[in-house]
Design a protein that fits this description.
about 475 residues; seven-stranded antiparallel beta sheet; six-stranded antiparallel beta sheet; 22 strands
Length: about 475
């Protein structure tokens, strides 16, 4: 999971991109980068850390031009500790291309061999984003050796890229002197939306981003989602063309975790309101709690701020129980789940949350969280509740048990780190120190997220079911990922 944005404007875009990345900060905290195009000249600044602390006035002065893109990184491949693997990535031929990418490729071994062999291209990192960029550049080079660049050539290039690349990818690129290209994998796993506004002079301005809240904040109108397998090409003067570039494109199969945790609640992702999806997840979770518990014994329902708050409110309403805010969040600590390294996640839980003792004393507390992944955060939260005086702690997850690795852009590379793998709910409860654990069902999650949908009938939910929809995700591949990728 990362956050990406691209803007084609009539005015300098450096501040617009910076402001957009602030709104996408929840999607990645490891590093950030901005690139702009001033005619045929490209400018790039990449930094480690979060957006507000990363950029200086001198950086913004260097980012000249009316077209640009930006990225916030949550490392799922490569090294999180080096700015070398921060995005965007650049190649100088053909034309000069800069690319940012959200997602994960699952055929990196094959592509790496092709790059060094048949394609004769050099890779300087272990990043699959660099691979994706070089595949694009190589295919574009073959099609433009004896001709000028056209939208038709761009779309043909993306079509070939879809044939070579497997996995999840939402990408935005700058092509020096020509404009901006954005494209999405044939399953539409990772989100990408298109927005439009008119400049003061009445000229077209465009934005492409991971989430719709970025568009609304910048005064853009949400036009639509970029479709699975589609490419959008916007010239430097604001002319837009689009084309479906994959014959294998299917109806949306978006990632369920976007609605469970990743996206901000004030975004609309693939036409689905994240906030309303989380309310419905709470409704379905309440039904499951009724089946498993005597709710008359529960005194209060409490959320783990912030992503579980809508679900917890609905649980309380449906069970006719008191809703209380017992945990308070330090907003200057990042999202624990996306911090690199188990030690860092554990240390940050108590920095991030503080328990209000008066809300816990002598009470049976039903704690609602968006999910239980590694159990690190959940265990610390249960301990905090007991220390604050809770008589009994029941832990409910608005998502089903996370039992399988996620290979499409979320950092869950191994089964052994997932607390629900090969454990029953009772065993998970024992492991995190709770009196009982209640999980959402897969069916309940699907019903909640897809309610009222006609175009979207299926979710990418491999971490819950073990069923992988893109690429040859075999047991051998999962074993290789577990060996070569740290969480």
């Amino acid at each position: 999971m990362c956050g990406i944005v691209g803007i084609v404007s009539q005015d300098p875009v450096n501040q617009q991109i910076y402001d957009s990345l602030l709104l996408l900060q929840h999607r990645g905290q490891d590093s950030t980068g901005i690139a702009t195009a001033d005619g045929t000249r490209l400018h790039t600044v990449k930094k480690q850390g979060q957006v507000r602390e990363a950029y200086r006035t001198r950086d913004m002065r260097d980012l000249l031009g009316n077209i640009g893109l930006g990225h916030v990184r949550y490392a799922t491949r490569g090294n999180a500790q080096t700015v070398t693997e921060a995005q965007p990535f650049y190649v100088n031929a053909p034309y000069g291309i800069i690319l940012v990418h959200n997602g994960n490729l699952v055929n990196t071994r094959e592509l790496t061999a092709q790059m060094s062999g048949a394609d004769h291209r050099h890779l300087n990192t272990n990043s699959d984003t660099e691979l994706l960029l070089n595949v694009l550049a190589n295919e574009l080079w073959h099609r433009t050796k004896d001709t000028d660049l056209t939208a038709e050539i761009v779309f043909d290039t993306v079509a070939k890229l879809h044939q070579r690349v497997a996995g999840s990818y939402a990408a935005i690129t700058l092509i020096a002197g020509y404009g901006m290209l954005a494209f999405r994998d044939p399953n539409g796993i990772r989100p990408l939306v298109l927005g439009h506004r008119l400049s003061e002079a009445g000229c077209d301005e465009w934005i492409i981003a991971s989430e719709s809240l970025v568009l609304e904040s910048g005064g853009y109108r949400l036009v639509r989602d970029i479709a699975p397998g589609e490419a959008v090409f916007i010239t430097s003067d604001g002319q837009l063309r689009s084309q479906l570039c994959s014959p294998d494109a299917v109806p949306y199969i978006p990632c369920a975790f976007e609605y469970v945790y990743l996206a901000r609640p004030d975004s609309i992702v693939n036409g689905i309101s994240v906030y309303e999806a989380r309310l419905r997840l709470g409704n379905m979770l309440a039904e499951e709690i009724k089946k498993q518990l005597d709710t008359s014994e529960i005194d209060v329902v409490m959320p783990i701020p912030d992503s579980s708050r809508p679900s917890a409110m609905q649980v309380a309403a449906n069970l006719q129980l008191s809703y209380r805010e017992g945990f308070y969040k330090n907003r200057y600590v990042g999202r624990t789940f996306i911090m690199p390294g188990q030690k860092e996640r554990k240390r940050s839980v108590r920095q991030k949350l503080n328990a209000l003792s008066s809300e816990f004393a002598d009470k049976t507390v039903l704690i609602v969280d968006d999910s239980i992944v590694r159990g690190t955060t959940s265990k610390e939260i249960v301990e905090m509740a007991r220390t604050a005086g809770a008589k009994k702690v029941i832990f409910a997850s608005a998502a089903p048990p996370v039992m399988y690795p996620h290979v499409y852009g979320i950092n869950m590379p191994t089964q052994n780190e997932l607390i629900a793998h090969n454990r029953s709910a009772a065993e998970v409860a024992e492991a995190i120190g709770a009196d009982q654990v209640v999980y959402q069902t897969v069916k309940g999650m699907n019903t909640a997220i897809l309610a009222g949908q006609q175009e979207i009938t299926q979710l990418e939910q491999s971490c819950f079911t073990g069923e992988y929809i893109a690429g040859n995700v075999s047991d051998e591949y999962l074993s290789w990922v577990a060996t070569n990728q740290e969480s």
